[in-house]
Design brief:
This protein has five helices and five strands. It has about 180 residues and is α/β, with parallel strands linked by helices. The chain has one domain: P-loop containing nucleotide triphosphate hydrolases (Rossmann fold). The radius of gyration is 22 Å and the shape is globular. Strands 1-5-2-4-3 form a five-stranded mixed beta sheet.
Length: about 180
């Protein structure tokens, strides 16, 4: 039996991959923009640089004159720390709890902070092992909706998610 006569499954796979890669992509959309606010969400395993990347991206977009909101959607609440000199913003969850105990309503100035042109906030969540992080995300977005989040007219909203958690609460903001 000749060696050439034996089918090499790797060669077949390589051929298929090359053929797929040679297909031209669709042309980019050139029509009018149908959505004013661009939402960018990054999900991923912890420690891969999501917060670092989004903090820098938000800063650069603000430097270009864009109105940017950076939202940390990780119970660790570390998204905003790069912008604020190593200290994260107080979280929406903590602030809402403290305001509720005091009989006060949450206002946007209680939970949204600005530095170098970037508006930033942390949703927060329960302490590790003390509750559902996804539920914290849902609760945080419910508060934002009550505060009129959809009417703030940002050019970009950047969302930083802990993506190695399997929970519906972490998918809510994308929906």
């Amino acid at each position: 039996m000749k060696l050439d006569a034996v089918a090499d499954p790797r060669r077949d796979m390589h051929s298929r991959l090359r053929a797929e890669a040679a297909i031209e992509p669709d042309a980019p959309a050139t029509g009018p923009v149908t959505k004013e606010t661009q939402v960018i969400a990054i999900y991923g395993k912890g420690g891969i640089g999501k917060s670092f990347t989004l903090a820098n991206l938000s800063y650069m977009l603000a430097r270009l004159g864009k109105k940017v909101l950076l939202i940390g959607c990780d119970p660790k609440s570390d998204t905003t720390s790069l912008l604020f000199g190593g200290r994260a913003c107080p979280t929406i969850i903590q602030t809402a709890s403290l305001r509720k105990e005091a009989g006060l309503e949450v206002t946007i100035s209680d939970v949204c902070f600005k530095r170098d042109g970037v508006f930033a906030m942390e949703l927060g969540g329960p302490e590790v092992g003390r509750g559902c992080g996804g539920r914290g995300i849902i609760h945080g977005f419910e508060i934002l909706e009550k505060l009129g989040f959809h009417d703030w007219d940002f050019d970009y909203v950047l969302l930083d998610f802990l993506g190695d958690v399997v929970c519906g609460g972490f998918g809510l903001p994308i929906a």
